[in-house]
Specification:
The structure is a single chain. The chain has 531 residues and is mainly beta. Helices cover 7% and strands 44% of the residues. The chain has a nine-stranded antiparallel beta sheet with strand order 35-31-30-29-28-36-26-40-39, with no helix packed on it. A hairpin with a 5-residue loop joins strand 23 and strand 24. The longest helix has 22 residues. It is elongated and about 120 Å long. The termini are far apart.
């Protein structure tokens, strides 16, 4: 019986079967139909031989029909088609047609012979070591005489790894590249037939750097490292982003410190090649001498875009550790102009020098009982708890860890909540100057400032005047440690939480300018601590 006649009879029988099936099948609404694909469409078997073929995709409920069961039979179990050749046929052909419940079909051409040439799906391939999708090749045995074996020849076993687990049952093998070179794999069968696979293996260029170990001698110091070799499209990651940050422009990697500690920076190229840099940030403890020349500002509106809660906070704590060099009226310490601010009250010719707390357009005005002294390190902490009704319980001021009695000057209105993203000075949170007025610039030195969304206790404030203790600090929204020790245009926020809001540095005497400037390393001086 000719191959064409077999196929014609099989198609007619199959069409009638599918028609009857379709008439009895219940209608479904908008079924999701996928095309059927098979692992291979041609197989060669010895008499009585068996082989498995995977159904790669389809719609389930698979059925297999042979054009001639005497030549080859087929059964389906799950997604696996098992084809078994007859016992007496030689040089015969049959077709196996596979269908699914959505009437999709594919066919497999089966050739049965007592002796086959050994034919592979490919005898040459290009591989690349370590590159997913390019470092392996699967070879199908299209025809052969069973009893298959595969081995690397001509001393190339070190270049490849051969997976032969499916060589007999599925008629395929997978070869993985291990090292660059030209490898040869010989495939043989039980009848002594053989075929050679030639593999041209290359290895991508390794990423090379001008430095692999660096130490940054200042907290906010930076260094550049050249990528001297690699495959382009570089990306960088930092194992501990609290310690340092890194970015790549072209083939130049820049690493900047954030806080003291150690971490690893990893560079990866488009071919998955990697190189690492061991980073140590080891800066001395500094404070920044503003000297009425510089001030800093941040904008919590950037956080409010994703976390609106900062616009309605019931409890806050502002902390500032500083040393003031001169008195001046309304010099800005820390806070939100027109919302909640700590400032100095009097010029140097006045006899008293209390701290003044103002908010809500000065509708709430409080003053410390104590005067602050010049040229002495002090820690100022303002705690506001909007859940309290008594003004003296709602607003508490601590100087060097000791609560100061506040004098109520005005209380037309008090805070019911605090919007940390709002001020009358462009919504900026400021340290060292407000509303663009040069005379309001602080004359002094700052070592650290913090913003909390919790009401810190007296003990917590006292224990952390000169630095934070503990691995976690719930409610810490921003922490600016003025210990950069290098030329910089910002003070790093090192709060360690979800959000990072760096403090931008600007010129306090530039006619109200907010343009970022770079302060020289010389403004960073020895850090002090309140007695």
């Amino acid at each position: 019986m000719s191959k064409n006649y077999q196929a014609l009879l099989l198609s007619a029988a199959l069409g009638l079967q599918l028609l009857m099936y379709g008439c009895t099948k219940k209608e479904t609404v908008n079924p999701i139909v996928v095309e059927m694909t098979l692992e291979k469409s041609n197989v060669a078997l010895l008499p009585s031989g068996t082989i498995n073929v995977n159904i790669n995709s389809g719609n389930g409920e698979y059925k297999a029909i042979s054009s001639n069961d005497d030549i080859a039979k087929a059964t389906v179990s799950g997604n696996i088609i098992t084809i078994t050749a007859g016992t007496n046929q030689d040089k015969a052909h049959a077709y196996i047609v596979i269908t699914d419940k959505m009437f999709k079909r594919q066919s497999i051409d089966v050739e049965v012979s007592k002796l086959f040439d050994l034919v592979l799906s490919k005898t040459q391939a290009d591989l690349e070591v370590g590159i997913t999708g390019k470092n392996e090749v699967t070879i199908n045995i299209n025809s052969g005489n069973a009893g298959y074996q595969a081995e690397a020849i001509e001393n190339t076993a070190s270049l490849v790894e051969i997976n032969k687990t499916k060589i007999e049952t599925y008629g395929k093998l997978t070869i993985k590249a291990l090292a660059a070179g030209t490898a040869k794999v010989k495939v043989t069968d039980a009848k002594g037939k053989e075929a050679i696979i030639t593999l041209n293996i290359t290895a991508p260029t390794a990423v090379a750097l001008s430095k692999t170990d660096i130490t940054l001698a200042a907290v906010q110091a930076s260094t550049e490292i050249n990528i001297t070799a690699g495959n382009g499209d570089y990306k960088v990651s930092v194992a501990n982003p609290l310690i340092a940050k890194a970015y790549i422009i072209g083939t130049v990697l820049t690493i900047k410190g954030k806080i003291n500690g150690t971490t690893v920076v990893t560079i990866e190229d488009k071919k998955g090649q990697k190189a690492t840099v061991n980073v140590k940030v080891d800066g001395a403890a500094f404070a920044m001498n503003l000297s009425d020349q510089y001030f800093g500002y941040a904008n919590f509106n950037d956080i409010a875009i994703v976390d609106v809660s900062v616009k309605s906070v019931k409890t806050v704590t502002f902390e500032l550790t500083c040393k003031i060099d001169g008195y001046r009226g309304l010099q800005t310490f820390i806070g939100l102009e027109g919302n909640l601010l700590i400032r100095g009250k009097n010029d140097d010719f006045r006899p008293t020098h209390p701290l003044q707390i103002v908010g809500l357009g000065d509708k709430i005005t409080l003053e410390s009982t104590s005067n602050f002294n010049l040229n002495q390190w002090m820690n100022i902490a303002l705690v506001v708890d909007c859940n309290q009704t008594d003004v003296k319980e709602k607003y508490k001021l601590y100087i060097n860890g000791v609560q100061d009695v506040l004098v109520v000057i005005r209380q037309d209105e008090t805070h019911t909540s605090i919007n940390l993203a709002s001020s009358s000075d462009g919504n900026r949170f400021e340290i060292g100057r407000a509303v663009g007025q040069d005379f309001r610039a602080m004359k002094g030195t700052i070592s650290e400032a913090r913003v909390w969304t919790v009401a810190r206790t007296a003990q917590q404030i006292k224990d952390n005047m000169c630095g934070l203790t503990g691995a976690t600090n719930p409610g810490l929204l921003a922490r600016w440690n003025f210990t950069a020790g290098a030329e910089t245009g910002y003070i790093q926020d090192s709060n360690g939480g979800k959000y990072e809001t760096n403090l931008i540095l600007a010129n306090a005497k530039a006619g109200g300018s907010y343009t970022q400037v770079k302060a020289p390393a010389s403004v960073f001086v020895s850090k002090g601590c309140p007695n």
